[in-house]
Prior knowledge:
alpha/beta; Molybdopterin biosynthesis moeA protein, domain 3; six-stranded mixed sheet; 7 helices; binds adenosine monophosphate; binds magnesium ion
Amino acid sequence: MISVEKAQKIILDEISSTSPEKVFLSQSLNRTLAEDIRSPLDHPPWDTSAMDGYAIRVSDTASASKEHPVLLNIIEEIPAGKMPLKTLGPGEASKIMTGAPLPKGAEAVVKVEETERDGEAVRIHTPSEHGEFIRLQGEAIRSGDPVLKKGAGIRAAEIAMMASIGKSVVPVFQQPKVAILSTGDELADLDEPRGMNKILNSNGYGLAAQVTEACGIPVTLGIARDSKEDLKEKIAIGLQSDFLLISGGVSMGDYDFVLEVLESLGVTMRLWKVAMKPGKPVAFGTKAGRPVFGLPGNPVSSMVTFEEFVRPALLKATGREKIFRPLLTATLSEKIRKRPGRRQFLRAVVSVKNGEYQVRSTGDQGSAILMSLVKANALMILPEEGEGLNAGEKVQVQILSEIVS
Ligand code: AMP
Ligand code: MG
């Protein structure tokens, strides 16, 4: 058996990134940028007002106070979206809205709350400093500045940023097509009539969702029966996709033919069995550079091995810079026992208590107990050596979703 790190290295060494393509900005969420992005323009494009108020000259308001306001003539009103036409002279002000371009001659903006309108004039109640409530041209972004890096995952913030610099078409890496084949005579799909002896194919659906989350395009191939002929036929179809995931049939059972069939179809097997729990029988091979994963059939093992091996590989294939989930150190709130030898990935809940991360297991950890994953927001990682940890000890956790407070 090899270690999780060794297995990850063997797998990741076989993964190269897909070619770039261009997509509309509105379609780019969760994709990976294939080029560095620089801004072609200044943002804001001119000096603008940061407040609703009056653009003024600093020297005019130096003596202003609530008791002795300064009276200035209003020469213009500048709503957002209108360019000012007039230049401020001594004793003059322009009414201005947030985001509107500053008129020539203006040195500061006085908030409307610090003023009192008087017909065509305004009383100013406070002095201003040079530049107050002015957003300078290029303050947020300067033309030519790098704004986003190749390899970044595109979130809402990246989309807003690209929109703000006029990038309506975005270079991203192509999404790998990921064939998903479930195997087992005992399986029935959701839309099939099923007898008493059938188990529903949950892995096919869970894996497809994990693929989508990891920026791949799932291609579901349904269920192959535990016969070499059926496996051969369906695996051959799966080998046409960029990735192939097969769940079940990779253990030591009498009907576990997947590895044999893969080899007969020309897949070079590169690893089988990793020192981990759940997920020990996981297998990996390649055919003509295409990665093939044999994931254990137990529903939790299938999802956990996807997390540890397939997700980083898929993200690497989509050109993503950060391919691993974040790791944190948390304080264990209960005693956990284990056998030495394999790294354990316990389904766990990480929460924040008094500003510190705490972690507990989600209860029964059997590899068929999906509820252990439903309740979890993290995987608690217990090292290979050792027989467990006591309450109060520190432990590493891999974050899967939002931390609860
Ligand atoms: P296997 O790895 O084929 O020996 O399967 C191990 C266990 O996982 C068996 O109890 C199977 O019934 C179950 N299993 C296998 N494939 C699936 C699947 N697609 N959905 C749900 N359970 C499965
Ligand atoms: Mg099976």
